[in-house]
Amino acid sequence: MDADLITESLERVAERCADPTPLVYERLFAQNPDMRALFVRDTDDSVKGQMLYQVLEVFLDFIGRRAYSANLIACEVVNHENLGVPPAVFATFFATVVETFRELLGEDWTLAYDQAWRGLLAELAVVVAGPMTAKVA
Questions:
Q1: Could you tell me which of 49, 44, 42 has the C-alpha nearest to residue 19?
Q2: Which of 9, 13, 40, 45 would you call most buried, defined as having the most Cβ atoms within 10 angstroms of its Cβ?
Q3: Domain annotation covers residue 63
Q4: How many helices and strands in the chain, by DSSP H and E?
Q5: CATH code assigned at 26
Q6: pLDDT (tens digit, 9 = 90+) per residue, 62-112?
């Protein structure tokens, strides 16, 4: 995975869209309509915004020092399962974010970006799958 390419693509997304939260969750709910009910009390989208912010922080830590991201993901898989989010759906959220960013950048989404993000998503999938399969630095 190429951390510089991921960082660059995130910067380009930020230039295009100050807050991609509504777009990310629109895509999530289109793919997983039953998840919408879990946000019924989030009338101002602050919970969704905080969750997306935390995911972006996880991405940045994971492509950098990996100080906490793997442990946070493992904890959040359990927390979300207790809220009714199956691990399989939890695992799709990272890809949903990337798909949204790809769409936002359109023709500016490069093959290099795509390869970097695919590498990151593959590594994150191992972490989401569980501590018994994760090999984290």
A1: 49
A2: 9
A3: yes
A4: 6, 0
A5: 1.10.490.10
A6: 999 999 999 999 999 999 999 988 888 887 999 999 999 999 999 999 999
